[in-house]
Design a protein that fits this description.
The protein has about 600 residues and is of the alpha+beta class. It contains 26 helices and 17 strands. Helix 11 (about 275-280) runs parallel beside helix 14 (about 350-360) and helix 13 (about 320-335) runs antiparallel to helix 16.
Length: about 600
């Protein structure tokens, strides 16, 4: 039976955990002053507005406003409940909780998805069992062994086999009493017009597709052609359809396993297919990723950007692979934060074939030392289909390369390529430089024309502007900031029964005072756990990141209290004036006189304050 985690265990987990280390597994962080900054994982952005404050053990995004401690981060990013987030952090730090954690969903959406994830992971394990332990999987296992995959690798990636039986999973789900609506929503079945189900995947080697948490959310099935099942009318690869779990635009194969290694090595390798990623893994290259098809999406690129700034494109070496490399470099090149390289696999092979032909050491050597800059790749790639003996083709080729040279940021690199082109085509550097200047000017004009369109792009996620605070509410936040960091200020406010204008600040002061009575010492990350309401937690985060001097003085506290007090009295005067107007309209002279006296008294207090 699930139990509540003791508070002392939660405290121990939090105290032994560095939030920078945890967040750094999901976001590429760079030191900036006392803090660390990176691209926010909660919304799309080009310029980093996400900050991790190491000394306070909190994170905060100035763009979308999200913030909290290490537990909040995992809750928000992975949809975990609070106990699940504590357990995940404890596992990272190898701390035993000593209790069973409830798997109760953190929110309604997570609760709706939970049975789908459970079904996918159950089916994943079943397919894997069939592959490695049954006669039905023998041919598929032999095929994988022939492709060079070891049993260890097959187990690591839980590769499986879907047998040639259209009602295999249907029978399994019916036996386990899986609700029909879960079956219909899973994408694992095709539902006929009469309501009956049949298996979507059959006679296929099954590759589980995981989300960033490592949860299986879909499958890619590779057709296994045999004597008994030639499958000539079947697609070679069949992926799960779009479901509430699986969105192919967001998924990168092996992202969950490669993420930490990519962060450590500072680079990721993009391959064209799953087998290439697996081949690289077997060669001890564990930073490989593959998209669902060769067309990269904004979501996939943003996910990569958050964990590294260097991407190597290592697609197949055939004509289609080179064209895909060219497209990928163009798409990735639009993201100025990424530095790029390309590797061309010799002999028109793919990385998997290259490994099997030349071995792991040669593949590692090629991926490490066979890298080209995007410009050098384009210089060679575009030469393949051009007749350089033809003057028009030669000019088109050179003009295209000069346009590409505009995108090269390094002046030294630009000068090097200008020299190579001048020597190869017997041109002067000056003529090429003049052409480059013209191309740069044209590029600037095109960017200016495109800017309004880009800003209205419906595909971009925009962050709602934050409400503008009044001078009085700014004073309330600053006073609470001082009360959080200075015991004397908090005690002064409590003893004087100071009244804030807005109830949420009054409530926050009460929470703060009660917390300090129990704990004696303020720890921001712990205080966030103490608060129950998300809105209150967010308010504390917003206040905690205010830029204020280290210590206050009596004059500052007095001025803040005066701003708040005067505003409160001014609001009372306005209210009395409204009531006075109503009394005059109704002819209630007695009430009008009483309110006049009250307004005079309040006005005196305002002047004295």
């Amino acid at each position: 039976m699930a139990q509540r985690i003791p508070q002392q265990v939660i405290d121990e987990v939090r105290e032994r955990t560095d939030i920078v280390e945890v967040v750094g597994q999901y976001v590429q962080l760079k030191k900036s002053g006392k803090n660390y900054v990176g691209l926010c994982p909660f919304h799309e952005e080009k310029t980093p507005s996400f900050s991790v404050v190491e000394d306070k053990q909190i994170f905060h995004c100035f763009g979308c406003g999200k913030g909290g401690n290490v537990f909040t981060f995992l809750q928000e990013l992975e949809g975990l409940s609070f106990p699940e987030s504590v357990k995940k952090v404890a596992d990272m730090e190898q701390i035993s909780l000593g209790v069973e954690i409830s798997t109760e969903p953190a929110n309604e959406n997570a609760g709706r998805q939970q049975p789908l994830i459970a079904l996918h992971e159950k089916i994943r394990d079943l397919y894997h069992h069939i592959l490695v332990n049954t006669k039905a999987g023998e041919e598929a296992l032999a095929y994988l062994h022939k492709r060079g995959l070891s049993d260890e690798l097959i187990n690591e990636f839980k590769i499986g086999f879907a047998p040639n039986q259209r009602d295999f999973l249907v029978q399994v789900c019916q036996k386990d009493r899986v609700p029909e609506d879960v079956m219909a929503r899973s994408g694992l079945f095709i539902q006929r017009d009469d309501g009956r189900f049949s298996d979507r995947f059959y006679q296929r080697v099954m590759f589980p597709l995981n989300d960033a948490r490592g949860k299986t959310i879909g499958f890619s099935g590779r057709l296994l052609q045999t004597k008994d099942f030639p499958g000539e009318d079947q697609p070679k690869y069949l992926n799960s359809p779009e479901t509430e779990l699986f969105n192919k635009r967001e998924v990168l194969f092996n992202f969950d396993k490669a993420r930490n290694e990519i962060r450590k090595q500072g680079e990721a390798i993009l391959f064209e297919g799953f087998m290439d990623v697996l081949a690289a893994w077997q060669a001890d290259i564990k930073i490989g990723l593959a998209s669902m098809g060769t067309s990269l999406t904004e979501q996939q690129i943003m996910a990569i950007e958050r964990i590294t700034s260097h991407v190597i494109v290592a697609y197949d070496g055939d004509k289609a692979g080179l064209a895909a490399t060219d497209r990928a470099l163009a798409i990735l090149g639009a993201h100025s934060r990424l530095s790029l390289s390309a590797v061309t696999i010799p002999e028109k092979l793919d990385p998997d074939e290259y490994l099997r032909k030349y071995g792991a050491e040669e593949l590692r050597n090629l991926l490490q030392h066979g890298r080209q800059t995007p410009f050098v790749f384009k210089m060679h790639y575009r030469k393949k289909d051009v007749n350089l003996d033809n003057e028009a083709d030669r000019l088109d080729y050179l003009n295209g390369l000069v346009d590409e040279l505009v995108k090269v940021q390094s002046p030294v690199e630009q000068d090097l390529y200008l020299g190579q082109l001048a020597n190869e085509f017997n041109l002067t550097r000056d003529s090429l430089k003049q052409q480059l200047r013209q191309a740069r000017q044209t590029s600037r004009m095109e960017r200016r024309q495109q800017t309004p369109q880009h800003s209205n792009n419906a595909a971009m996620i925009t962050v709602a502007p934050k409400p503008v605070l009044t001078q009085q509410e700014k004073a309330e936040r600053m006073l609470i900031y001082r009360a959080i960091h200075e015991t004397s200020v908090r005690e002064q406010l409590v003893q004087q029964e100071f009244q804030f204008i807005h109830d949420r600040y009054q409530e926050l002061l009460l929470y703060l005072d009660s917390y300090m009575m129990v704990h004696g010492q303020f720890v921001l990350a712990d205080f966030l756990n103490y608060l129950k309401e998300d809105a209150m937690k967010q308010l504390v985060i917003d206040i905690s990141v205010l830029q204020m001097s280290e210590d206050s003085n009596e004059r500052e506290i007095y001025d803040l209290m005066q701003v708040i007090a005067q505003s409160g009295i001014a609001d009372e005067i306005k209210q009395r004036q409204k009531e006075q107007l109503e009394a005059r309209k109704t002819g209630n002279q007695q009430r009008e006189l009483e309110l006049t006296i009250q307004i005079i008294e309040l006005t005196k207090r305002l002047k004295q304050a």
